[in-house]
Each structure stands twice: as C-alpha cells, then as structure tokens.
C-alpha cells in the first residue's frame, strides 16, 4: 500500500521534462546545483515500478546527458525496462536512451535482442523504425547476427518508409557481421534498379560507404552503377554515385574512360552547384588523365572562383588544390583570383589560397611570391601571419632548398621574418639559419651580416618566440666570425647586459660565441704579427684578416671587455651559463699574464700563443649537416651482439631509460655520431692528446663496459679503409668544387646558385613515414570485402544459371556477362545514334577473352564493357 | 557519413546534440565546446565550411548555418558533399518552421523530443535517408499521434483508478 501510494504521489507530482527545462531557465540555483538536485530526483523516480514515471525519469536523464554531459550509463538497465513497455511513447524514450548511451561494453546490451526482434516484426511501421534506428546505431556482432533474418525480411517490405531504413541498417549489420552479406546482398543490389528515388538514394548511400571501405569489392557492380549514373536525375543519388566511381576508378583506371563522358554531361547540364562540384571533384581527383574532362572541370572551377558566394569560392580553391599537383596550368590560369583571395575576409578562403600559391612556387617566382606573402603577413592577424611564414619556410626549405638560387636574398628574408611582429616560428627559422650556414658556404658572409643586424636589434630580445632565432644568430657570429666586419662590436653585443632577458641555454650560446670571437681575434693578431715578421705567405689567412688590423691595444681592450661582461655571470645559478663563463674566464686568466707582460707575443714559445693555437684547432673543425639516417649507415661489426646482454643495461642506467619516440632518437644518435667523429678527427689532427689520467680512466671504463662499445679500430669506418658509401658531410663540403656554369639552366641568371651540401638520403627522413595506418583499416574491413566478393560471385553464378535454364543456346555461358551489358549498351547506343560501332565490336571481342580468363580463375568477375 | 548534428545558441549553450558514433559524454561536451569556440570567432558572411580534423579526427568536415540566435552544425566525412550538406540543414529547419510556424530558439528549447523525431527521420544512423520536409512532417505527425494515443490510454487508469483504489 505504502509503496504504491508513493509511486502514485511520485507520478502525480513528478516533474516532466518540460518542467525540468523551465527550472533550468529560472536558474534559481546554480546550474550544477540544479543538475545534481534533478539527478537525485531522477534516481528516485527511475526505480519506481510504474513505467510512466520510469520513462519520464529516463527521458529527463537523456536530456541531461545529451545537453549537460551527465553520465547516464548507470541507467542502462532501466532503459531496457522502459523499452519493453507496450506503449509507443515509452518505447521511443527507451530506444532514444539506448541509442544514446549503449556501446559494445554495455553489459545489459544482450537483454534487448528479443525486444528489438519483436519490434522489428511489429505491424506498426513506426515501431519497426525505432528498432531499426537502434540497430543502426548500436548494433554489435551478436545483435547483427541474431537479427539478420529480420533485416532480410524488412528489405523486402512493401512500405518505402520501412524499406529505406532497412537498407540503411544493412551497413551496420554488414560491418559487424560480414556473414550477413551472403543473406542480404542480393536484395540490396536489386534495389539499385528501384524506381523510387528514396530507395535508390538509400542503397547508393550504402554502396558509397562500402566502396569507401573497400573499392575492389564493389567493382563488379559497375554496370548497375553506371546505369544509375546515366539515368538518374536525382542530385543526391548522383552525388553518391560519383563518389563511388571516384573510389572505383582508383582501383580500376580503365573505368575512367567510360565514366568521363557522362560526368561531363552532368557538368554541362545541371544547375545544381553541389552536383557540379562533385563532378569537378571526381574529375580532378580520379580522372585527372582525361584532358577534356579536366579542361571542363577547370572551367567550372573558374566559375566558382569568380562567384560572390564565399562557399563556392572556398570550394573552388579547394578543387584547384586537388588539381594542382598534376595540372599546374590550372592554378597559373587562375593566379589572379588566388592572389586576390589572400585578402579575403574569410580565413578558410585565405588559407586555401595560401596553400595554392605555395603549390606553384618555383625557383623563378619564389622571390616574387615571397614578397607578396610577406606583405600580407605584415598586415594579417597572428594566426594567418604565422601560417604564411610557415608556408614560405617549408616551401623554400623543401628538398635541401631546391628552389633557392639566391641565398643572400633568402637569408635576408629569414631576417625579415624575425621582424614581423606576430612571428612565432622562431624555432623553424633558427633551424634554417644554422642549416644554411652548414650547407651553403657562399651564404655565410650574408648570414653573418643578417645575424649581426638581428643581434643588435633591441626589440627582439623581449620577444619570447624569437629567442631561438637569436640563438642561431649568436652561434653564426661565433662560428663564422671570419666574415665579421667588427669582432669587437660583436663581442660587445653578445655580452650586453640585456642578454639577461634570454633563457640560460641561449645565454650559454652567446658566451660561447664570444669565446670563439676572442680566439679568432687573438689568432689573427698573432698571425698578422708573424707574417709581418717573416714575410712568408702564411697558410692561415682569412678573408678579413687584413681588414681587422688588430693592435696590441685593441686586443687588450677586447679581453677587458669580455672579462668585464663575464665576471658578474660567474656566480649565476644556471650551471650551463656558469660553466661557459668559467671556461672563458679561465682562458683569460691563462693569457692575461703574458698579455700584460710582453709586447712581443708572436714568440711561439709563449703560453698565450700555445693555448690560442690549441683553441683555434678546437674551433676550426667545420660543422656539416648530418643525415638523420647516419646511424643506419654504420655497419654492425662482427662479434657485436646487439640484442643480447642488454638486461644489465637497465641496472646501469636505471630509471633514466625511458622510451623516446623514434624521431628524436635518431636525431640524438646522429648528433652524437657527428660529435664523436669530430672528436676523433681532432684527436688525430692535433697532437695534443688529452691528459693521461683521463685517458686511463676512459680505458678502464671501456674495459668495464666493453661490450657496449664498437671495437675501437672499426670506430670510424673510414680509418681502416673499409668501403663506405656514405661520404662524410664535412669532407663533402670541403671537396665540392663550384658548380660548372650550366647554360641550360637559367641563361638569364646573373648570379650562380651556390653549392648546397646535400646528403643523398636522410635529408628527407626527418618526418617519420606515416603510411602505416592504412593497413590496419584494410585488415578490419577485410572480412567484409571478402564476404561481398563471394556474394557477388554467387550472384553472378546464379544469374548464369538462370539464363542458362531459360536460354536454349546456353553453350556460351561465358558470354553472359557481356550480353547483360550489351542490353544496356544497345539502349545507350540508340541514344547516341549508333556511333563508333566498330570500336565497340572490337572491344567486345577483347572482353570475351578476358571474361573466360576471369571465370577460369574463379576470381571476381569484372564486367568488361566498362573497361 | 554524418558524424554529428548539433544545435547551439550564440552563447554556446547546446540545444541539441547527436553523435552517430558512440562517445562518452565528457568527450561530447568537449567537442561541443570546441566547435562553439571555432564558430563564435568567425565573422559574418564568410564561408560555411570548416576543416575540423583537430576535433573529430582525420577526414572531418563541418558545415554550419547561423540562424538568428542559433547555430546549426553538421559534422561529416569525405563521403558527403559539402554543398549538399549545406542544403540538408535547410530540411530540418524548414520542417521545424512548419511545425511551429516561425520557429524560434524557445520552440527548440521546449520541444526536445520533437526535435529528435524530426532529425531521426532525416538522418538515420549517420546516413541521409530523407530530404523532403513534407515526408518528414508526415512521419513526425504520425509519431505525435501515436504518442498522444498511448498517453490517453495511460492517463485514465493511472490517475482515476489509482485514486479510487486508495
């Protein structure tokens, strides 16, 4: 009694969904408060036995879940209860809740199988529709398997309302339970000939999805689909058929020739922009070898581009970018429209235009296009500005700066980019500045000039995004100091107090560069002295040594400036800065005494001369680009067990061993390899070996962890004369002679393209290959496509049988396929006034032979008339 | 395939959200917020398409239409045509306009259930099955009738006999 009365009270005073929504709008409590109160209510109401109360509670819960992100998985069982109600309204609420919240892992999912089956068999088409919708959304393998017979029955329904939904549900059923293909496929295919546009649209939609997953399996249906393509005047249907053919043409290129003409026909005829666009897209993406079709498509694209409607403009640009790789002329023809679109107010249009513009960049127009783009970058919003910068950077650096001829210009452009107020691509610019420094010898003077301009610009120091660029500029001024006009000023800039704004890691680069400059100055001072004394042509001579006439005073001054700038830094907290500082100060400490005491420093016996020469040696090694795949080139020496004994590696390294993603891993390896190599060469070249205690320690370490080292003889594959196909980057840079003048290439070019060091491989591999993902999806759909293929085989055989029974002269079974097609061809021929009769006869002839082959090998029969 | 249908007002409050692949509710809310943050930053009179791979995974496109205080959003993949999707938005809007004669945001707020009925007739498990608003109207009216009928049966025994029984 009491329980039933509370249920009645609940029911009477239950808030409906409408009440709930009204409550929300009043907002007396905060929203989250209100939701938790409502949830409390729902939790109570949903437990009541009365189905009306229960369903209203569930309805409210669905609403809260959909719009306010409330979890409703706990109510799964209640949804099953509600769906079993005989009342339509409850059922609808129940199904709504189920489709919304159930998934493969929902434990009560199997409980609904019988209810769904019951509703699929219902006489009320709206109940059937609810059940179908549910199956199409949450159908699992088990549900699909158990309900396949019902779906099959519904496929034959006389009510279009039910039939179209049954067709729609087939997609989910096939996907989850491929064996259903055997049962349902024939009925599905039959609907391709339906005269009802709704049914046709539904079935074409299903095949579009199937073709997307596996184009090959739908190939045998090409004749039926072709008929739809030619006959249908429904835009929805045509769009889907075009999509299917775009997919099919990718696996069977010969289809393209056949469908190109009808597609062009639609393009000329229709006024519906959606259909025109689909035709255009199909042509430019899948039929790009058919010149006439492409021409027509490009003409249509041009119409889109000049429209005022931003949607059409956007899609037109979109289509152009598809066509660009194969038919660049199409883009060039519309260049004005593209450039104009750069200043469009629509960000989509602007971006699309930018991509297009970048696709037509080549070595002749790169400077013009970059000029245009830089102007746009200056006045654009930050996002688009950086998109522009990024596009220019990546287009110009592609394939080791392939399109850049004038590196002085490009380096200046990089410097200019740094000054664009919104620039946030500091890291990429940093990378390129250094990369060009290493690869292009001739660009170094300009690099140093640009770096100098960047370093003295006080505005850049305050911009966080530009710090990487400054780091590159500092490194360049140190590394290529011989091109520097005024080393003294460079040192001043590198050690200016405002460098305190930089992060420590970059500050360390500044200090180290100042050190390099100091060494350079000392060395050129000594060598100048030497040469004036001995009058012999010294080997050591830099381009600017005569220019930088260092006097004793200027050197002294320089040392003082450096010392003054660095002393305050020797106490910083950052270890890197501190260490660099201490290094320089230590060096200065070593030479200071000599400097102060003697005026004749050219004496090679002095301490200062010796240390300077040593440091000069250390710095003189030129850095070159390193292939990202350098590590792979090192052949594994015999006797080295790479895979074994790595167990105790963990003990040694402990938790420092963390998985690193492959990209940075190879980067690190190549970096360390290059360092090693440089060190080895240094050790070989400079006789000054490391102190003895250190080498003995090293030897001991090697002895202990010997198994992790390569045998020392084979450390450098070049040293013992083993054949090595990988040229050392540094050597390469030294050996390359200036490119001989090449009249074929750029006769009007006044300036010759400087040598760019390029490693044959490895330059491109900075991006990891990403083609793997496809394979998995293929595997997923494999069973489905196999099922479809076998179903088609059965279907074709069935037809053969049918025909052979009715047809007295059944001896020519292999002609079946072609005769079926001929029927259609004949009707088509009538339309075309019997053109090209000879050509078709010969193709028929050919096809018969192919057909025999196909049936003999029990493969999927590919209809031949389309080929 | 259509991946999701959303309606939200210009303040970002969702009015309708349907995802055709199962997604946890937190993810749904995140996507709704993400879509709104992109939409609200777009000026008037620009194209109605968006590349939205960052939110919905690769090969995702979004088309939206702005009506008075509402955004109507469709998210779909490469097997749909952009312009056709733009036309498709018109179908439910037209239907709702017929249902409520001059539909406004309040109608949509208070007729959550009907909204779903309309949408379910047009998009079925992610596939477009109906594009004629007359057909949709017919089905929706039929569904309303069925619901009303099942309700009227239920009202009598529930309230009257229930009270008597006490």
Automatic annotation (TrEMBL), chain A:
<dbReference type="InterPro" id="IPR017105">
    <property type="entry name" value="AP3_complex_dsu"/>
</dbReference>
<feature type="compositionally biased region" description="Basic residues">
    <location>
        <begin position="829"/>
        <end position="848"/>
    </location>
</feature>
<dbReference type="InterPro" id="IPR016024">
    <property type="entry name" value="ARM-type_fold"/>
</dbReference>
<keyword id="KW-0472">Membrane</keyword>
<keyword id="KW-0677">Repeat</keyword>
<keyword id="KW-0653">Protein transport</keyword>
<dbReference type="InterPro" id="IPR002553">
    <property type="entry name" value="Clathrin/coatomer_adapt-like_N"/>
</dbReference>
<keyword id="KW-0333">Golgi apparatus</keyword>
<feature type="domain" description="Clathrin/coatomer adaptor adaptin-like N-terminal">
    <location>
        <begin position="32"/>
        <end position="511"/>
    </location>
</feature>
<dbReference type="InterPro" id="IPR011989">
    <property type="entry name" value="ARM-like"/>
</dbReference>
<comment type="function">
    <text>Part of the AP-3 complex, an adaptor-related complex which seems to be clathrin-associated. The complex is associated with the Golgi region as well as more peripheral structures. It facilitates the budding of vesicles from the Golgi membrane and may be directly involved in trafficking to the vacuole. It also function in maintaining the identity of lytic vacuoles and in regulating the transition between storage and lytic vacuoles.</text>
</comment>
<feature type="region of interest" description="Disordered">
    <location>
        <begin position="709"/>
        <end position="867"/>
    </location>
</feature>
<feature type="compositionally biased region" description="Polar residues">
    <location>
        <begin position="767"/>
        <end position="777"/>
    </location>
</feature>
<protein>
    <recommendedName>
        <fullName>AP-3 complex subunit delta</fullName>
    </recommendedName>
</protein>
<keyword id="KW-0813">Transport</keyword>
<feature type="compositionally biased region" description="Basic and acidic residues">
    <location>
        <begin position="813"/>
        <end position="828"/>
    </location>
</feature>
<comment type="similarity">
    <text>Belongs to the adaptor complexes large subunit family.</text>
</comment>
<dbReference type="Pfam" id="PF01602">
    <property type="entry name" value="Adaptin_N"/>
</dbReference>
<comment type="subunit">
    <text>Adaptor protein complex 3 (AP-3) is a heterotetramer.</text>
</comment>
Automatic annotation (TrEMBL), chain B:
<protein>
    <recommendedName>
        <fullName>AP complex subunit sigma</fullName>
    </recommendedName>
</protein>
<comment type="similarity">
    <text>Belongs to the adaptor complexes small subunit family.</text>
</comment>
<keyword id="KW-0968">Cytoplasmic vesicle</keyword>
<dbReference type="InterPro" id="IPR016635">
    <property type="entry name" value="AP_complex_ssu"/>
</dbReference>
<dbReference type="InterPro" id="IPR011012">
    <property type="entry name" value="Longin-like_dom_sf"/>
</dbReference>
<keyword id="KW-0653">Protein transport</keyword>
<dbReference type="Pfam" id="PF01217">
    <property type="entry name" value="Clat_adaptor_s"/>
</dbReference>
<keyword id="KW-0813">Transport</keyword>
<dbReference type="InterPro" id="IPR000804">
    <property type="entry name" value="Clathrin_sm-chain_CS"/>
</dbReference>
<feature type="domain" description="AP complex mu/sigma subunit">
    <location>
        <begin position="1"/>
        <end position="146"/>
    </location>
</feature>
<dbReference type="InterPro" id="IPR022775">
    <property type="entry name" value="AP_mu_sigma_su"/>
</dbReference>
<keyword id="KW-0333">Golgi apparatus</keyword>
<keyword id="KW-0472">Membrane</keyword>
<dbReference type="InterPro" id="IPR027155">
    <property type="entry name" value="APS3"/>
</dbReference>
């Amino acid at each position: 009694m009491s329980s039933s009365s509370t249920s009645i009270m609940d029911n009477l005073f239950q808030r409906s969904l409408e009440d709930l929504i009204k409550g929300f709008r009043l907002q007396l409590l905060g929203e989250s408060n209100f939701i938790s109160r409502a949830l409390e209510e729902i939790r109570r109401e949903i437990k009541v036995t009365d189905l009306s109360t229960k369903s209203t509670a569930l309805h409210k819960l669905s609403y809260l879940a959909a719009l306010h992100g409330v979890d409703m998985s706990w109510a799964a069982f209640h949804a099953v209860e509600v769906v079993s109600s005989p009342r339509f309204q409850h059922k609808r609420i129940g199904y709504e809740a189920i489709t919304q919240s159930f998934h493969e892992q929902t434990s009560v999912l199997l409980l609904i199988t019988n209810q769904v089956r019951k509703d699929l068999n219902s006489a009320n088409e709206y109940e059937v529709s609810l059940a179908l919708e549910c199956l199409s959304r949450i159908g699992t393998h088990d549900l699909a398997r158990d309900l396949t017979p019902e779906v099959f029955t519904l496929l034959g329904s006389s009510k279009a309302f039910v039939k179209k939904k049954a067709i729609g549900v087939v997609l989910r059923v096939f996907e989850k339970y491929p064996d259903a293909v055997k049962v349902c496929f024939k009925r599905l295919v039959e609907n391709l000939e339906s005269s009802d546009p709704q049914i046709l649209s539904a079935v074409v939609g299903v095949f579009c999805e199937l073709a997307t997953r596996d184009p090959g399996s739908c190939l045998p249906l090409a004749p039926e689909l072709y008929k739809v393509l030619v006959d249908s005047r429904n835009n929805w249907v045509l769009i889907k058929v075009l999509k299917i053919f775009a997919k099919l043409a990718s696996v069977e290129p010969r289809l393209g020739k056949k469908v190109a003409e009808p597609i062009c026909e639609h393009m000329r005829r229709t006024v519906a922009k959606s259909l025109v666009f689909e035709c255009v897209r199909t042509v430019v993406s899948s039929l790009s070898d058919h010149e006439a079709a492409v021409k027509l498509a490009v003409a249509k694209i041009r119409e889109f581009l000049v429209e005022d409607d931003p949607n059409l403009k956007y899609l037109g640009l979109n289509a152009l970018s598809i066509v660009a790789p194969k038919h660049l002329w199409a883009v060039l023809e519309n260049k004005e429209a593209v450039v104009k679109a750069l200043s469009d107010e629509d960000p989509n249009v602007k971006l699309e235009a930018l991509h297009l513009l970048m696709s037509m960049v080549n070595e002749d127009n790169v400077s013009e296009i970059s000029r245009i783009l830089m102007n746009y970058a200056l006045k654009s919003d930050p996002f688009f500005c950086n998109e522009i910068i990024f596009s220019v950077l990546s287009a110009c650096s592609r394939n080791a700066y392939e399109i850049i001829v004038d590196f002085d210009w490009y380096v200046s452009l990089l410097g200019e980019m740094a000054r664009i107020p919104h620039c946030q691509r500091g890291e990429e610019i940093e990378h390129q500045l250094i990369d060009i420094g290493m690869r292009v010898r001739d660009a170094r003077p300009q690099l140093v000039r640009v770096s100098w301009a960047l370093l003295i610009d006080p505005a850049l120091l305050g911009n966080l995004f530009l710090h990487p660029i400054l780091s590159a500029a500092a490194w360049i001024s140190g590394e290529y100091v011989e091109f520097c006009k005024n080393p003294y000023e460079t040192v001043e800039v590198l050690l200016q107090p405002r460098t305190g704004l930089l992060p420590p890691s970059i500050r360390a680069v500044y200090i180290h560069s100042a050190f390099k400059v100091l060494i350079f100055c000392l060395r050129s001072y000594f060598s100048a002295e030497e040469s004036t004394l001995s009058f012999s042509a010294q080997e050591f001579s830099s381009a600017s040594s005569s220019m930088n006439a260092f006097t004793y005073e200027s050197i002294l001054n320089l040392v003082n400036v450096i010392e003054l700038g660095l002393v305050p830094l020797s106490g910083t907290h950052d270890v890197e800065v501190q260490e660099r500082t201490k290094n320089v100060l230590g060096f200065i400490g070593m030479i200071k005494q000599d400097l102060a005491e003697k005026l004749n420093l050219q004496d090679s016996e002095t301490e200062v001369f010796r240390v300077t020469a040593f440091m000069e040696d250390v710095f003189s090694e030129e850095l070159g680009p390193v292939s990202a795949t350098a590590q792979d080139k090192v052949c594994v020496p015999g006797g080295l067990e790479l895979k074994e004994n790595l167990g105790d590696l963990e003990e040694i390294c402990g938790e420092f061993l963390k998985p690193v993603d492959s990209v940075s891993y190879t980067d690190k390896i190549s970096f360390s390899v290059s360092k090693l190599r440089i060190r080895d060469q240094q050790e070989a070249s400079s006789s000054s070996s490391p102190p003895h205690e250190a080498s003995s320690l090293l030897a001991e370490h090697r002895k202990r962890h010997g198994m992790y080292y390569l045998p020392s003889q084979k450390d450098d594959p070049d040293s013992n004369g083993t054949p090595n196909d990988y040229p050392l980057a540094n050597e390469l840079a030294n050996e390359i002679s200036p490119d001989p003048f090449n009249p074929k290439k750029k006769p009007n070019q006044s300036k010759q393209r400087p040598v760019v060091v390029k490693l044959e491989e490895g330059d491109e591999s900075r991006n990891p290959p990403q083609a793997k993902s496809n394979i998995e999806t293929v595997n997923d759909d494999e069973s489905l496509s196999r099922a479809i293929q076998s179903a088609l085989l059965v279907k074709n055989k069935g037809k053969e049988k049918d025909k052979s029974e009715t047809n007295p002269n059944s001896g020519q079974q292999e002609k079946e396929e072609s005769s079926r097609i001929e029927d259609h061809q004949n009707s088509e021929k009538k339309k075309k006034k019997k053109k090209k009769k000879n050509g078709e006869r010969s193709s028929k002839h050919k096809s018969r032979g192919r057909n025999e082959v196909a049936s003999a090998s029990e493969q999927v029969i590919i209809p031949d008339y389309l080929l | 395939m259509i991946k999701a249908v959303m309606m939200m007002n210009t303040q970002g409050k969702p009015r309708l959200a349907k995802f055709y692949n199962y997604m946890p509710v937190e993810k749904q809310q995140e996507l709704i917020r993400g879509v709104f943050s992109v939409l609200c930053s777009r000026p008037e009179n620009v194209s109605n398409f968006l590349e939205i791979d960052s939110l919905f995974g690769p090969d995702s496109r979004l088309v939206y239409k702005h009506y008075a205080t509402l955004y109507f959003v469709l998210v779909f993949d490469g097997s749909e045509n952009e312009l056709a999707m733009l036309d498709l938005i018109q179908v439910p809007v037209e239907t709702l306009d017929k249902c409520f004669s001059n539909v406004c945001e309040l109608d949509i707020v208070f007729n959550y259930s009907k909204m779903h009925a309309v949408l379910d007739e047009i998009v079925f498990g992610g596939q477009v099955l109906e594009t004629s608003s007359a057909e949709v109207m017919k089905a929706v009216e039929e569904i309303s009738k069925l619901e009303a009928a099942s309700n009227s049966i239920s009202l009598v025994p529930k309230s009257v006999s229930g009270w008597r029984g006490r």
